[in-house]
């Protein structure tokens, strides 16, 4: 199966596994000359906080999540690294439920593959708190690569 578009889902706490997420994404995209769409999804409070920190007025209707996300240092670093590997990059920001928004964005951009990070959880932890990665794996319109955080 040819891969033209890879959606790389970045959450608010991905810094500890960003190198592995980047490596997995390059492995999928590079041989296929695929475009990588970096999707950074935040809940409303995190979005508002980030927008203010980056100098945006979140109450201004002219501010879009993608504009805010583009200025986030982690996203800029990730973009630079992927572009240095010769990969075309697009950025999408979204606000809302992470799992729902990742699945929506994967459909919207016509992703052939999704790369998502997660951490090891007990069955009770999954039942009580849910799992973004699990939701994406079950609902994604395309195959999903799960990059686990090895620390417990």
TrEMBL record:
The gene is uspA35. This is Universal stress protein UspA. CDD domains: USP-like (cd00293). It comes from the Archaea. InterPro entries: Rossmann-like_a/b/a_fold, Universal_stress_UspA, UspA. Residues 4-148 form the UspA domain. Belongs to the universal stress protein A family. PANTHER family: STRESS RESPONSE PROTEIN NHAX (PTHR46268), UNIVERSAL STRESS PROTEIN UP12 (PTHR46268:SF6).
């Amino acid at each position: 199966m040819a891969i033209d578009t890879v959606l790389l889902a970045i959450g608010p706490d991905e810094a500890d596994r960003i190198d592995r997420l980047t490596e997995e994404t390059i492995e999928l995209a590079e041989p296929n000359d695929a475009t990588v769409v970096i999707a950074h999804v935040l809940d409303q409070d995190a979005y508002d906080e980030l927008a203010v920190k980056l100098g945006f007025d979140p109450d201004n209707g002219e501010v879009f999540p993608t504009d805010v996300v583009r200025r986030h240092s982690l996203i800029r670093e990730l973009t630079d690294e992927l572009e240095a590997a010769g990969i075309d990059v697009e950025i999408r920001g979204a606000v809302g439920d992470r799992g729902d928004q990742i699945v929506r964005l994967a459909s919207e951009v016509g992703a052939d593959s999704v790369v998502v990070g997660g951490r090891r959880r007990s069955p009770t932890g999954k039942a009580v708190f849910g799992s973004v990665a699990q939701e994406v794996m079950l609902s994604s319109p395309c195959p999903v690569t799960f990059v686990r955080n090895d620390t417990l």
